[in-house]
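[Automated response] Your request has been received and processed.

Submitted sequence:
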Amino acid sequence: MANESLVLPQRTKKPKWLRVKLPVGKKYTELRGLVDKYKLNTICTSGSCPNMGECWGEGTATFMILGNVCTRSCGFCGVKTGRPDTVEWDEPEKVARSIKLMNIKHAVITSVDRDDLKDGGSIIWSETVQAIRRANPNTTLETLIPDFQGNNKLIDRIIAVHPEVVSHNMETVKRLTREVRIQAKYDRSLGVLKYLKDNGMRTKSGIMLGLGESENEVIQTMTDLRNVGLDIITIGQYLQPTKKHLPVKQFITPDQFKKYEELGLEMGFMYVESGALVRSSYKAHKHAS
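Generated structure:
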């Protein structure tokens, strides 16, 4: 990838294609007011997503359940690691109300990893989808789930409530998985996606670039995902959340992202979102139809 990416000297500035426009528009202003007034917990705001204005304008938002402390310590992620709080059993209804207040057409639900719980949080996951369905029958759903340690009985709870899209992110190539996703396993994540697809789900996954992977490794990851029947793939640029996290080793050029998009479509993916500012939920509403 060296010929198509920008290899970083120390403390280099971000390239111009990573400049983010401030979110604007009537819909964004309206939703921002609701989020602030009712203290609604969206990943869009807490994660300072670069696509927040665009997604909100299209009626899409992402919500995180099961708290904001993760039991895993991935090298790329800005979410706190530690001992999570106890489960809030009224959380499903709170999320459903938030979606109704914001008049969301397509909701993405994600969560921290809860390896501390016997059910991995799968009961709250199931109840959240059902609560959203009751309060917002016209809202489509994507569930961006953890690997549940590869326990199919827990994954069955997601399958049973049948969201329009089920997503689980690979995040990186096989060689870098141990460094980037310390407690995760590449083949286990592939197995989760295969199990979901084999049970009738529309499946989705995302990877980040710029962690030192080669072009061949990216293509191999895409091939592995397509071989388990994956429908939708997102490919974006990794950006370091804090100095404590893994450094960015490369800024991938727009031309290279375009190349991966074209390759992905040739491989047979239903949708390929590939670009520097692409995140898991980017254009998520489109993937549900």
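Summary generated for your ticket: The domain at 21-287 is CATH 3.20.20.70 (TIM Barrel). The chain is about 35% helix and 15% strand.
If you did not submit this request, please reply to this message.
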